[in-house]
Design goal:
2Fe-2S_ferredoxin-like_sf; single chain; Diverse_Oxidoreductases; alpha+beta; 2 domains; Beta-grasp_dom_sf; 10% strand; DNA polymerase, domain 1; Ubiquitin-like (UB roll); 5-stranded mixed sheet; 33% helix; iron-sulfur
């Protein structure tokens, strides 16, 4: 059975070796940030890092990923502090959000190789389809993430990592039904 390291943890998938990595990640590892978009490598929604390279996980089998290091959006940064994640939010380059994990993975791989890419290099490195059409803002976000990575700029606040239980609901006294005497 294929073994690899996923988000820093060793994993052995008890699945057929020709299973696409996408389905192993989503179904066996419950890493659902990696999205199923088209299944044929056209949309990029399933982009992950394999040994640091952005690859479409629908096109690579778990046998081909054996012995390799796989990183999904869940491990890009646990607190959403990665420059790409912060810049996508700051530049409002997220609409419905379905394509965002794949775009973030492609962009972060690009910035690892080249922290100051040109617009043409960004366009070439981000093959992802976004049906909401955020491309101009996406380019600005990746340029900004590069500046943050180069420490030329900071983004004032990270997006909230989630809502705490205390903020999501508060305890109130139980409501008691009226008695017959009332």
């Amino acid at each position: 059975m294929p073994r690899m390291t996923v988000n820093g943890r060793p994993v052995e998938y008890l699945m057929e070796p020709d299973t696409p990595l996408l389905w192993a990640l989503r179904d066996a590892s419950n890493l659902t940030g990696t999205k199923y978009g088209c299944g044929v490598g056209d949309c990029g929604a399933c982009m992950v890092h394999v040994d640091g390279e952005a690859l479409r996980s629908c096109l690579i089998t778990i046998a081909e990923a054996e012995g390799r290091f796989v990183t999904t959006i869940e491990a890009l940064s646990r607190d959403r502090s990665h420059p790409v994640q912060q810049a996508l939010v700051a530049e409002q380059a997220i609409q419905c959000g379905f394509c965002t994990p794949g775009i973030a993975m492609a962009a972060s791989a690009l910035l690892e190789r080249n922290s100051a890419p040109s617009e043409a290099e960004i366009v070439a490195a981000i093959p992802n389809l976004c049906r909401c059409g955020v491309y101009p803002r996406l380019i600005r976000a990746i340029e900004r993430a590069g500046r943050v990575a180069r420490r030329e700029e900071t983004i004032s606040a990270a997006p909230a990592p989630g809502i705490s239980a205390e903020d999501a609901a508060r305890r109130v006294p139980a409501i008691t039904p009226p008695t017959d005497a009332e």
